[in-house]
Amino acid sequence: MSNAKQFDVVVIGGGPGGYIAAIRAAQLGFNTACIDEWANAKGGPAPGGTCTNVGCIPSKALLQSSEHYEHAGHGFKEHGIEVSGLSLNLAQLLKRKDGVVKANNDGILYLFKKNKVSFFHGRGTFAGAGEGGYTVNVSGQTTDTLQAKHVIVATGSNARELPGAAFDEKLILSNTGALAIDAVPANLGVIGAGVIGLEMGSVWRRLGAKVTVLEGLPTFLGAVDEQIAKEAQKLFTKQGLSINLGCKIGAITKGENNVTVEYADAKGEAQKATFDKLIVSIGRVPNTNGLGIESVGLKTDERGFIVVDDECRTNLPNVWAVGDVVRGPMLAHKAEEEGVAVAERIAGQHGHVNFNTIPWVIYTSPEIAWVGKTEQALKAEGVAYKAGTFPFMANGRARALGDTNGMVKFLADATTDEILGVHIIGPMASELISEAVVAMEFKASSEDIARICHAHPSLSEATKEAALAVDKRSLNF
């Protein structure tokens, strides 16, 4: 099309996978555009996708603020800090969260300018294919027609709704509404004890809500190492989260100011609970809404994911897809790594993503983080292994922090001692896990970590001690 703007690479979606792919493509010398339709309250561009706008970033801001509030109300006294007249200014707490989000939005727009990525604010839709590549229309805040030699689809995912209980973001909330409740509910229901359910439940419990979690599966955090998950359930219950497993959700009825959930408990007995607000966090579905995949024949699977090979190639030549809209874990950092890898593959390089060393984190208190295989997975696969654990209660820095819950756990091959998995529940687990990721990427043994000098006093010493424990020679426990 003669009036179309010509690009080497057009990225549809400005979340972690998309904006990073666009920046890397531009760094590699490609004339690159990125299309994203997220808008802020004033209608301006808000790139960063779910992660920045209604996911990772705002949830961590609320988790931090609510943890400060809980410390001030319950934890400071032990440190000799007396607080009187403590009160919650929820409007300011939410305003700060919004400020953190905007700073990230603005940072991405700055990075686009710095790297000479052309940004288009609107929805990107495939409009056809030809010898010159693909036509992509932009509609919404701006209207344009782009011509691309390569297209990278990075359109992310949407919260999954319960049948018969559509999100209204007032009474029945997705992650979007859960981040913007304007008054602390007395009774908050959460359906789904996954990452979002536990993080949001933790935020509102700390701020004063009575939180009831209803989980369909009979086990708690089934993807987490079983020993770590049991410790987490014990600690969360002690904090005040009411966790109910094996629940079969029935009718959900909205009242004027509340929501009633009928469900069968683990024993099969009928139960009914009424909540001021209900958060539904039962997973996410790939987002191909309005993408125009039919116009070019882009293939999706039975669950709606765009079909890709190991290198993120779709069934169409020079069309790629990354992040939540394709197979694999729905993690922002996974999307980023795929985005970089695809840009490098377009340039003829050998982009690489190792799914075995992608870390997972749940930002509750205590944090939970892990990489590699769980103990139950190794047993199921018949892999001979050795395990070593070390509790934070025996760590000097954790004692000084007053945060001694949890442990570090190493799993290593029984013959070669190669690290197969590391699992942490405790303070700053999200930061501590990186050492394990590096070690596993370089195929280190537990002995390698055990022999490395770690600063004293530090939480990281618990990592060293757990590695020592694999060989039953922990020094401080």
UniProtKB/TrEMBL annotation:
SUPFAM superfamilies: FAD/NAD(P)-binding domain, FAD/NAD-linked reductases, dimerisation (C-terminal) domain. Its main location: cytoplasm. Gene3D superfamilies: 3.30.390.30, FAD/NAD(P)-binding domain. It is found in: Cytoplasm. GO terms for molecular function: dihydrolipoyl dehydrogenase (NADH) activity. Its cofactor is FAD. Binds 1 FAD per subunit. It comes from the Bacteria. Its EC number is 1.8.1.4. Belongs to the class-I pyridine nucleotide-disulfide oxidoreductase family. PANTHER family: DIHYDROLIPOYL DEHYDROGENASE, DISULFIDE OXIDOREDUCTASE. This is Dihydrolipoyl dehydrogenase. The gene is lpdA.
